[in-house]
Design brief:
With 425 residues, the protein is mainly beta. Among the domains are: 128 residues, Cupredoxins -  blue copper proteins (Immunoglobulin-like), CATH 2.60.40.420; 123 residues, Cupredoxins -  blue copper proteins (Immunoglobulin-like, Sandwich). The longest helix is centred in the first third of the chain and has 9 residues. The structure holds CU-O-CU linkage and copper (II) ion.
Length: 425
């Protein structure tokens, strides 16, 4: 489909300054069946517009994204725009922000995108199953003045559980929910390009959209830096070492191609995807520097400190409620919020993991600051990984009014009780 914006870009990009194109990007996504080729075999999955994963959405910073979700599934669905700081009623959360979109119905999402970076969209209804089946896709917010790179490549990690017939495994055993979640038996990555040139400067956007697996990755063939976490540029880019991505997290790398670019699952050594090398260009001499920061508020005076205690799971402590997992003794979304914040308040959240499993804690509508041992802000993220038995503190500036979910992004844990919410007034 050629949108008006794409037409303008292709017809008039040379003549018009970018800013005059600021406006609206409109599209329709139809959740429905989609086939996926795995090892030469067609697997029946779900996707958007017949594609699994869904199509990549690209929008310029501060443009308004309008997406009609036209539900062609047999089930209800909802779409959440992970990491985007948007108005609450556009957040796509059952109970808190909207009703489920029933089969055959449509819902129109519309919101401006204030921050550049690598985001993604996914089903937020029965997500442990709908995301496992492929209802997710990349959402890229582009800089008005893009960084100096030759190629901009997206890598979506995936972890699929196939049955003996090589089809999506329809079983969701109880034990999975109470432990590490549903682990696939085929790990892969979908790349938006096949090849690069030796010497190209490449921006590689890695997204972990899988329900439960924490990926530990090795990326070889690129000499450069990690420049962003969860969409947000790093003030000081970091060396490309082993990358750990909890479900929901993203890492952007900018690097020069020095060989075939390989994404490898570090624990097993399995190759997930490869960008082959075709052709060559002269390598740049300037180092990879930081990208401009997004307009996210800095933490102020801490107005309140709130504990979020993770409980339950196999071998974990007891707690109230009926599910396997709990926050602060409640399993499942509680009536009362975890906290209420006045708009603009800085809150310190103490994330205490009292379970024998790691959890990736995700906050909607905001990014928060991870902190170092002395309590100083380090990285802006929307999902933070808390190891078994660990405590981590994050600082949130709650400047976006509404009811916002906080949950474990291991979607099996979320489904089995690990969810709460905050109210910002
Ligand atoms: Cu990426 Cu509540 O979700
Ligand atoms: Cu969890």
């Amino acid at each position: 489909m050629l949108s008006r914006r794409t037409m303008l870009l292709s017809l008039g990009a040379a003549a018009l300054p970018m800013s005059s194109l600021a406006g609206v990007k409109a599209l329709t996504l139809r959740p429905g069946p989609a086939g996926l080729q795995v090892g030469g075999k067609q697997v029946e999955m779900l996707g958007f517009n017949g594609s699994c994963p869904g199509p990549e959405i690209r929008v310029a910073q501060n443009d308004t994204l309008r997406v009609r979700i036209d539900n062609r599934l047999q089930d209800g669905t909802l779409v959440h725009w992970h990491g985007i700081r948007l108005p609450n009623r556009m957040d796509g959360v059952n109970v808190l922000t909207q009703d489920v979109i029933i089969p055959g119905e449509a819902f129109d999402y519309a919101f401006p995108v204030p921050d550049v970076g690598t985001y993604w969209y996914h089903s937020h209804y029965l997500s442990y199953e709908q995301v496992a089946r492929g209802l997710f896709g990349p959402l890229i917010v582009e800089e008005r003045t893009p960084p100096d790179v030759d190629r901009d490549v997206t890598a979506m990690l995936f972890d699929i559980l196939l049955d003996n017939a090589g089809q999506f495994d329809e079983e969701f055993p109880r034990e999975d929910f109470a432990t590490l979640g549903r682990m696939g038996n085929v790990k892969t990555a979908f790349l938006s390009a096949k090849s690069v040139r030796l010497g190209d400067r490449v921006r590689l956007r890695i997204i972990n959209p899988v329900p439960d697996r924490i990926f530990t990755l090795e990326v070889t063939g690129l000499s450069g830096r990690c420049v962003a976490f969860d969409g947000m540029p790093l003030a000081s880019p970091l060396p490309i070492e082993t990358l750990v991505l909890a479900p929901g997290q993203r890492v952007d790398i900018i690097g020069d191609v020095i060989g075939e670019v390989d994404l490898r699952d570090a624990p097993s050594g399995e190759g997930l995807a490869r960008l082959s090398v075709q052709g060559t260009r002269e390598r740049r001499t300037d180092p990879v520097g930081p990208l401009p920061a997004n307009p996210v508020p800095r933490p102020g005076k801490i107005a309140q400190t709130v504990d979020l205690v993770m409980q339950g799971g196999a071998g974990g402590g007891t707690h109230g409620g009926f599910g396997t997992w709990a926050f602060n003794d409640v399993s499942g979304l509680p009536q009362a919020p975890l906290l209420s914040a006045r708009r603009g308040e800085t809150v310190r959240l103490r994330l205490r993991n009292e379970t024998p499993f790691p959890h990736g804690i995700h906050l909607h509508g905001h990014h928060f600051w991870e902190t170092d041992a002395s309590g100083d802000a380090t990285y802006l993220r929307d999902t933070t990984l808390v190891a078994a038995g660990d405590t981590a503190e994050v600082l949130c500036v709650f400047d976006n009014p509404g009811a916002w979910m906080i949950h474990c992004h291991m979607l099996s844990h979320q489904a089995d009780g690990m969810a709460t919410w905050v109210r910002v007034t």
